[in-house]
Structures are given as C-alpha cells and as structure tokens.
Design goal:
The chain has helices at residues 15-22, 40-46, 59-68, 86-98, 168-188, 196-213, 220-248, and strands at 3-8, 28-33, 50-53, 74-77, 82-84, 103-112, 115-117, 125-131, 135-138, 144-147, 153-163. By secondary structure, the protein is an alpha/beta fold.
C-alpha cells in the first residue's frame, strides 16, 4: 500500500495535473495545506484526497508532518508542481506488484516557461518513495531525506515532470528569496565572508559548469536564461553573506 503525500499553498494552477498523474498509483492521497485561499482545496476534494490544514513550519517539518498523517508506511512524496509521466507510472505500479523494498529514486525533467530543459538541470535524481520509518526530511532550502540506515536505492524508469517557473520574473524572485535563506544558513554555521575575487570566480564557475559542462547551451534561449540566473543567485548568496558580516560589526 502506497500513500501519495503532497504539501500545498495556493496551487490551483498545478495541483490538478499532479493529482491526475498519481491517482492510479496511490492507495490514498494526503494533502497538507498551509492556508490556501484559492481553489486548491476544492480541486483536491474532486480527486478524493484527504485534505488537512496545518500552519507552515518550513519545508522539511511540513513534509515530515504530512508523512506522519499517511495511513501507510510506504510514502510517495511529490510536489504540487510535479507530474508522474506514463513510463514512471508503469514502473511504480510494477514495483508495487513485486513488493516495495529499499527506496526509489526518479529523474526530474524541468519545464521552464513552457519548455522542457533536457540538459542544464540534469540529471536531477530525487528519492521520493521510501518507508517513512527508515528516514525523514531534513534541511531548510533543498531538503533531502536523512535515512537512519541507508536502504538500497533503485532508480525508476520514466520522468517526474517538474513545472517550475512560468515567467523569468518568477525565477528571479525565487532566486532572491533562496539566496537570502542560503546566506543566512551559511552565516549561522560560521562561514566567513568572501572576497570580491572569490565571489566573481564562484559566480563565473557556476555559469560555466551549467552552461558548458552540463550542456545548458543545448537548451537554447531558456537554457542560457536559467544558467545566467543560477549564476546570479550564487553572486547574491555570497554578497548577502558579506552583508550579514558587515552588519555584525
């Protein structure tokens, strides 16, 4: 038995696609919502999901709370802006038929402003199916599953389609938000301020790595845009880290 678990906040533009893609693999769908004011709850009810309201605690804490509400120990944690494709759905159904064991990872394929990016953000392998007794979410920004005893992980065939940003402006706003969180986290753990030369080098390397070595250039115009904004986010993170150090003096 497999519980599909989703956290939401004003996801009316995404949640229907997500729910439709997991209906066949889910023995139950649990949605934990942090105060949506749009049609998210109505759409979830249409798909028979168990809808639970819970105040926002942060990404990892919210997902761990959601997993705890599931009726089954085996959980499939999926984001509202993600979608299981046909091949991945078949792979999950086969694993359920054979008997679930270990943990299961899948590769995400990002859709950016209506275009799928096959290079600059790949591979993007994520563990999403596991027994919740074996581990839980950890981290503030890009959360990961912390296992007590690391299980054998199998990578499933197919794609987890990830519908990220609908506009470039949306991406820039998120880069600003996440770079602030990353800077605060780095400052809290005692990371030292960076020189202007170091910031320039880290920013340049981030762009070169994603655009050249990860072949973002093959993703065309949006490949360039994504790599450029990602590099700018690196610049923002270290600049904001320095700002925190300057404010401390």
């Amino acid at each position: 038995m497999l519980s599909v678990v989703i956290i939401t906040f004003n996801e009316e533009n995404n949640i229907r696609r997500c729910l439709a893609s997991v209906q066949e693999v889910a023995d139950e769908i649990v949605v934990v919502d942090s105060g949506s004011t749009d049609a998210t709850e109505r759409i979830c009810n249409e798909y028979g999901a168990r809808f639970i309201r819970h105040n926002w605690e942060g990404y990892s804490a919210q997902k761990n709370f959601a997993n705890a509400q599931a009726a089954n120990d085996w959980v499939f944690s999926i984001d509202a802006d993600e979608e299981v494709d046909t091949e991945l759905k078949a792979a999950i159904l086969q694993r359920k038929k054979d008997g679930l064991s270990g943990a299961y990872a899948m590769d995400r394929l990002t859709n950016y402003c209506g275009k799928f990016l096959h290079h600059c953000w790949r591979p993007d392998i994520k563990i999403r199916i596991w027994n919740r007794n074996d581990g839980e979410w950890e981290g503030d920004i890009h959360e990961i599953i912390k296992f007590r005893n690391k299980p054998i992980t199998n990578t499933l065939q197919g794609e987890l389609n990830h519908y990220t940003y609908h506009t470039v402006s949306e991406h820039i706003r998120q880069a600003d938000k996440f770079s602030s969180l990353a800077a605060q986290k780095a400052f809290a753990r005692g990371e030292k301020r960076k020189s202007a030369c170091t910031i320039r080098c880290k920013t340049a390397w981030k762009f070169i790595r994603d655009y050249i070595f990860h072949l973002g250039l093959l993703d065309g115009y949006y490949g360039f845009v994504v790599c450029r904004i990602s590099a700018f986010a690196t610049f923002l993170k270290y600049t904001k880290l320095n700002e925190l150090h300057f404010a401390k003096k």
